[in-house]
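Design a sequence for this backbone.
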């Protein structure tokens, strides 16, 4: 199975989404290299970066599921190889 390295950037504007986000990250944990979350209190948002190494289908599925959560926005960047 061919894998790609990718980073999913997540902006969380609704704190109530945290449980759903964590559930999805747990579901895709086998592909996650690491993650970093930073609260930005002045704007009342959280910024999360998730580094992954997995099949493109799994990465795009996770990104899509995260982006479908109310109050959550995502962007994904893929490596070329």
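Sequence:
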């Amino acid at each position: 199975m061919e894998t790609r390295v990718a980073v999913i950037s997540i902006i969380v504007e609704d704190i109530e989404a945290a449980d759903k986000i964590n559930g999805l990250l747990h579901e895709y944990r086998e592909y996650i290299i690491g993650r970093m979350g930073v609260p930005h209190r002045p704007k009342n948002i959280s910024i999360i970066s998730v580094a992954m190494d997995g099949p493109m289908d799994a990465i795009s599925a996770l990104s899509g599921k995260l982006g479908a959560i109310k109050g959550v926005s995502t962007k994904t960047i893929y490596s070329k190889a």
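Residues 49 and 70 are 18 Å apart (CA to CA).
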